[in-house]
Amino acid sequence: MNVWGNNIKLSIFGESHGKAVGVVIDGLPPGEAIDADEVAGEMLRRSPGRDRFSTARRESDSVEVLSGLLEGRTTGAPICGVIRNEDARSRDYDAKLRPGHADWTALLKFGGHADMRGGGHFSGRLTAPLAFAGSLAKQILRRRGVEVYARIAAIGGVEDEMEDREMRDRQGYRAVSLRDFPASPSAEEAMKRVVDAAKEAGDSVGGVVEAAAFGLPGGLGEPFFGSMESAVASLLFAVPAVKGVEFGDGFRLASMRGSEANDALYVEDGKIKARTNHNGGILGGITTGMPLLVRAAIKPTPSIARPQESVDSATMTETIVRVSGRHDPCIVPRAVPVIEACLALCALDGLL
Amino acid sequence: MNVWGNNIKLSIFGESHGKAVGVVIDGLPPGEAIDADEVAGEMLRRSPGRDRFSTARRESDSVEVLSGLLEGRTTGAPICGVIRNEDARSRDYDAKLRPGHADWTALLKFGGHADMRGGGHFSGRLTAPLAFAGSLAKQILRRRGVEVYARIAAIGGVEDEMEDREMRDRQGYRAVSLRDFPASPSAEEAMKRVVDAAKEAGDSVGGVVEAAAFGLPGGLGEPFFGSMESAVASLLFAVPAVKGVEFGDGFRLASMRGSEANDALYVEDGKIKARTNHNGGILGGITTGMPLLVRAAIKPTPSIARPQESVDSATMTETIVRVSGRHDPCIVPRAVPVIEACLALCALDGLL
Amino acid sequence: MNVWGNNIKLSIFGESHGKAVGVVIDGLPPGEAIDADEVAGEMLRRSPGRDRFSTARRESDSVEVLSGLLEGRTTGAPICGVIRNEDARSRDYDAKLRPGHADWTALLKFGGHADMRGGGHFSGRLTAPLAFAGSLAKQILRRRGVEVYARIAAIGGVEDEMEDREMRDRQGYRAVSLRDFPASPSAEEAMKRVVDAAKEAGDSVGGVVEAAAFGLPGGLGEPFFGSMESAVASLLFAVPAVKGVEFGDGFRLASMRGSEANDALYVEDGKIKARTNHNGGILGGITTGMPLLVRAAIKPTPSIARPQESVDSATMTETIVRVSGRHDPCIVPRAVPVIEACLALCALDGLL
Amino acid sequence: MNVWGNNIKLSIFGESHGKAVGVVIDGLPPGEAIDADEVAGEMLRRSPGRDRFSTARRESDSVEVLSGLLEGRTTGAPICGVIRNEDARSRDYDAKLRPGHADWTALLKFGGHADMRGGGHFSGRLTAPLAFAGSLAKQILRRRGVEVYARIAAIGGVEDEMEDREMRDRQGYRAVSLRDFPASPSAEEAMKRVVDAAKEAGDSVGGVVEAAAFGLPGGLGEPFFGSMESAVASLLFAVPAVKGVEFGDGFRLASMRGSEANDALYVEDGKIKARTNHNGGILGGITTGMPLLVRAAIKPTPSIARPQESVDSATMTETIVRVSGRHDPCIVPRAVPVIEACLALCALDGLL
């Protein structure tokens, strides 16, 4: 179902080569000032055509807000934001399935009725409305002392080993997150080399995006099925290309002993705190008040120029596919504001 | 919220040292024969006190079904299964917080009103009702040609590298899954040594559980927020101790190129198939018909005998905690039927 | 689906002649004292076998609470309450469909697999768990200044015309609601005569139950689909035998002019109030702070001794049915605490 | 929450004097042909400015579909329909609360931040997107043999007593429903006189709308909380001005005996049928296969020219309000396609 959330409800719509993509956001508190310039800036972070790593498709990604805002403030009624598709080069549907893409499963599910031009409703373009919704969430959260930032943790095997100290520090995290290339300067060049090499080979490369929410109070989330980890993961796995989600040290915890993985507790300013954050700010599905840390594995863009074995679904015969057109050799940098938006939406949903 | 599912609804309840744990399962199709012996066998797989790795607490974990079954068949009405707590040694609440445990967050959320004896509602004991629900789901799925199995993929850094061939083969997977120690014989000894070493050191160790659903038709799941990955992850992250979830090659995809990660397509018996299964049977959130493969990172049991820095929540002073009592040095083997149950419930929810 | 609610989640289970009926209630605030004697008293109000109007089936309707309470207080975890069926005279399923009963539709839906002994999951006995949940809700609400009462507004065409003054007055309403026969003394005899006459004729009779919530703050409910009227009606129409729901003057508003139906506003103690309450405390789906007034039409019990034309579903032939056994000639008095419970649950769901 | 439905999800947005109103409809089956002319015709049935009974505001109510349709067919992805507000005369917010209107409760809920120009998000204008969604539902239903029609059952106390025979007959119902004034010719003049009299007096008048779904299969709906009556009522009570909902004979059942209210059963063409339809096609919350009959009480439009006692919310002083501007003396005729749309959406939601 295209609806997500408990206190906030998101309803998303649109296709890559249709008229528009958009989202209805219900449940935002009334009276919240929304800075339209900041929203536009956020949309720019995700928008295509900005550098040599992203598709040549150019979209201004400006959002028309149809409802729910009055004189720059939320009214309490649902906000509908619409982003028109401008540079959608209409083309006929290609019956040759792109390996690793939803072409195959859209066919299984919708029996040929899906509008699969440019990936249709399964396109990464659907993350533009998410970025819009996340931008509203971040503004509302900031006023409540909560800040959410994301960064590139790895690209094509090149990891950005931020110091643990930085990871618990809002300023350090923000500095990296807001860079044009949102990774540590020390990692940037190696990452870019990996992408360039893939691009030259007509190939693509994946990576890991990490997001952190600072200032989130303890006690958010519900026991069992309502765990904060369930909520965040369910939204992140909606983002095309995400194939793994982990909190805190995640899969590395599987190799640790309890004495390493447990975060020792102490008292500071009359509050309980943890000396480390291996559990990523969540215990028993409930936030601890430590930074909420989550990492998402982004698979390499399936659309590549290299020839691939595939099937022509019209004739049900095997064929070779070479995906031409405008494609990102690496979507990881553009995924950063999207993962950030997801975490912000989850944080706000939990907070309200 | 303690309710999960779309077509099936699960509502879970209970505390570790209260009267009982249980679950209400709504939405199962009517007329399905349920083999009570098979259910009992499944409960035994998860139950404590069976070997040297699990807690000495002994529970028969027999399920009393209060509703929804008539003469061994589902009626279409909700099934309520209740598992009484027999060996719950009542003790007073200990204000010393166990690091890595929900003691801290239960306090933040419920302000001291939670029944935290033995972990209370946050205890791993709540997975017994999940195993019960999963057992029903597996019986109903099998009749529809779908089988779900899980295995230990890693314990304490020791990985069980099953051959890729085996991973796509129902028989091979079942053989490993149904072993007393559900890992390949070649990995068993090394894994047990790691657990023994941790136990001797008064410590615990984590691991990775993998589950696979064979025979699932293509086309299950919904676009965007209703992705099968979102559904599976949201249920898995409800299981205590799960800190990471990945599908197919998961985080390893982040280091791959598109040409490696994309599963080449071909035609067999008039159907489209994939030569490899890096994407774990899901593309665009929709099942492909290939085996659905998911892995869950299980953190080491936080309850360990070794001294740990912590806080006494009654006095808000720092203290040293040594968790005595009956605790598993490694819960990974007992988590196998639970992760399996979760995947079965998701598969059935998607199929109905 | 057998799950209801937004902030509270109710999950109900059980059959009339099975082992038990019960409910899981999730989302109650932690630390709320629950008076078990009061709960028992509420269960008695609804229980059968108390007077000449109700079925001779005798059930103590005592509730075993399996979870979520510790030393008489809510813990924040789900509460599961189980009510065993004691006087369920097991009998074989009768293929003769009772007109006006769910026998027919259970067959259509569950194809013969439903446990329809005594009405099964469709039985009015399922309202016992609702009364239990409502009893908890009423105790929690009272502590927040909200009281909910219900009364018999009509039986078999005999209406109880309480004065409008009384209807806005908590004390007057409570006095009537807590009577053994919860109607005005002036209406009691006429109502009882109608029931006796129906009983003598081997027939049954319906009525109207009205409930009022006093002290509810304004501003509860959500615009459009989340209207308080939608929430209350969706729960009331789950109660077997309810065929109509109206708020304030309800269907009588359809014959009024705007100048009569609009409630004139004034200021008292710095707050806006309404001089009349034709809209039943709700405008635009949101509570005004005036008493919330709702009425439910209860159809006559379908199980009657008089011969009726029907169908034998086993042979698909027409037949005559005479429903023998223990049946209420009028369930309206027993419906009073149930409708009250429903309104209390809605009020608490909106308030949290 | 502004989201409704189980298999279909509706997400509605917009304000009376904002840019637009609209709806996102998710879950429609793929490949369904949608006749745009028929949609436009349906929008016209509800649109204002067509006769002397409705507001002079003129809106073409043409729908721009942003997503989910390709070459006139549903794709399976969500459909977003947007209806621009053309004749919205922008005016400042008036602090004088209109009695009987959501002005008061919007203030309680949103604290002055709501956009209440023209009723804002609480305006009857929000029913335009419902009519659009209902139009799609009706086209999809018709192809499955289900037809939904509504009619005026009463206006200002003048009832249209259609013969019981007609009420069970699809053709007779359709003929009345599709009239310009959707009531029996014999009732039309008396109804119009009542409206004219109210209009002359600067007043308004309410009524009752009845809707029927013909051809719906038996077995739709779920036991207990998922009853078809709960689903239909929850959607109808979202429609502004609806204050009562009843199924079949509804509140009249409260005065009947069981022997009158029970619908006698017989066999025809190998299927069980009912000789009468007092229960409105629903027993135990599940459809019987008889026509589903529902009636909604519509209160008189609260906006009237006559002076009314009220409060100025800016100064919190009592004042007299005369609502000037363009208002319907009777919205009942315009409510007919809306109630019809609601029933169609419920029928489709249950059928899928």
Topology record:
The structure is a homotetramer of 352-residue chains.
Chain A (H helix, E strand, L loop, with lengths): L2 E2 L4 E6 L5 E7 L9 H11 L16 E3 L3 E2 L2 E2 L4 E6 L18 H8 L16 H16 L4 E9 L2 E2 L4 H4 L2 H8 L7 H16 L6 E8 L13 H9 L5 E6 L10 H4 L3 E4 L2 E4 L7 E2 L2 E2 L4 E7 L9 E5 L4 E5 L10 H20 L1
Antiparallel strand pairs in A: 1-2, 2-3, 3-7, 4-7, 5-6, 8-9, 8-10, 10-16, 11-16, 12-13, 14-15, 17-18
Q: Any overview of this molecule?
A:
Four copies of one chain form a homotetramer. Chain A is of the alpha+beta class and 352 residues long. Helices cover 27% and strands 23% of the residues of chain A. The first copy, chain A, contains nine helices and 18 strands. Chain A has helices at residues 36-46, 103-110, 127-142, 164-167, 170-177, 185-200, 228-236, 258-261, 332-351; strands spanning 3-4, 9-14, 20-26, 63-65, 69-70, 73-74, 79-84, 147-155, 158-159, 207-214, 242-247, 265-268, 271-274, 282-283, 286-287, 292-298, 308-312, 317-321. A five-stranded antiparallel β-sheet of chain A has the order 1-2-3-7-4, with helices on one face. In chain A, strands 9-8-10-16-11 form a five-stranded antiparallel β-sheet. A two-stranded antiparallel ribbon of chain A has the order 5-6. In chain A, α3 packs across α9 (332-351). The longest helix of chain A has 20 residues, at 332-351. Chain A starts with a strand and ends with a helix. At the A-B interface, β1, α2, α7, β11 and α8 of A face β1, α2, α7, β11 and α8 of B. β11 of chain A pairs antiparallel with β11 of chain B.
